[in-house]
Amino acid sequence: MKWIRSFIIAFSMYSKIPMPKVQWTKPSMQYAFCFFPLVGAVAGALTWGTGLVLFGLRDAGKLPALFPAVFLTILPLLVTGGIHMDGFMDTSDARHSYGEREKKLAILKDPHTGAFAVMSAAIYLLWSLALWSAADEKVLPGMACAMVLSRTLSGLSVTVGKGAKSDGLAAVFRESARQKAVWISTGIYLAVCVIFLAVVSGVIPAVLLLFTAGAVFARYLRMAVREFGGITGDLAGWFLQVFELTALTVLTAWSCMLRF
């Protein structure tokens, strides 16, 4: 029963997919991060399936070239409700303050939206739009896997990483999580994604995605500890968004190279 409740909590917290109501107790939250990547699997499957249809219509001249790019840019936000983009914006605002650690943490808690948050979100969405405009169906399997890996590593960082604060939702999940279960599920998700992508798209995109994940994750952990003193929920959301955009950049570049 705890596993089912953890599944429901993961989807209730990190997606807009309707779920039954359950009580958020420490036992029921123990395995939430084990199911968090499944939210990415749903978002990835929707992106892959929708992308195949939209790219097919675009290439047949039945859709404006911009329409698939716009839809694929906003689709993950529709699935998640923008919770991770909110963390990306808050973190961008805090980092661009160039203040001391305490000031940056205070900005993360501030409900107001700063100018740097708006500019960072605009740049992010415009770059995503540009990439999806240049992408084709070869990018879709890799992005589906990236959406799983982003949540796998984001949840892992919150669970086993040093917390920047003793309060907040990330601290609650960290205190409730079964670390061993999260480590095991992380290994499973990583292995499944890499093997799956190698079979479907080939070894090169699988290696590119794995390298990108490692590079962005290492930078994220270093930045979080150096600038904020540890991990917060907003920082975990920042990583998720940055990794997915970086993965889209790398996979689109690889796809474009194949055309020449």
From the structure above, extract its key features:
11 helices, 260 residues, mainly alpha
Outline the structure in words.
By secondary structure, this protein is an all-alpha fold. Helices cover 78% and strands 0% of the residues. The chain has helices at 2-14, 32-59, 66-80, 83-95, 101-109, 115-134, 140-160, 169-176, 179-200, 203-228, 233-259. The longest helix has 28 residues, at 32-59. The mean pLDDT is 91.
Number of domains as seen in the coordinates: 1
Uncertain stretches: none
> How many helices does DSSP assign?
11
| Helix percentage | over 70%
Broad structural category: mainly alpha
| Helix/strand order | HHHHHHHHHHH
The geometry reads as globular
Largest sheet: none
- Kindly report the average pLDDT value: 91
DSSP strand tally: 0
Report Rg: 18 Å
Instruction: Calculate the terminal CA-CA distance, rounded to whole Å.
Output: 53 Å
Strand proportion, as a percent range, falls in under 5%
Compile the SSE list and pairings.
Blueprint: H1 2-14, H2 32-59, H3 66-80, H4 83-95, H5 101-109, H6 115-134, H7 140-160, H8 169-176, H9 179-200, H10 203-228, H11 233-259
Helix pairs in contact: 1-2, 2-3, 2-7, 3-6, 4-5, 4-6, 4-11, 6-11, 7-9, 7-10, 7-11, 9-10, 10-11
Pathway: Cofactor biosynthesis; adenosylcobalamin biosynthesis; adenosylcobalamin from cob(II)yrinate a,c-diamide: step 7/7
Protein name: Adenosylcobinamide-GDP ribazoletransferase
Function: Joins adenosylcobinamide-GDP and alpha-ribazole to generate adenosylcobalamin (Ado-cobalamin). Also synthesizes adenosylcobalamin 5'-phosphate from adenosylcobinamide-GDP and alpha-ribazole 5'-phosphate.
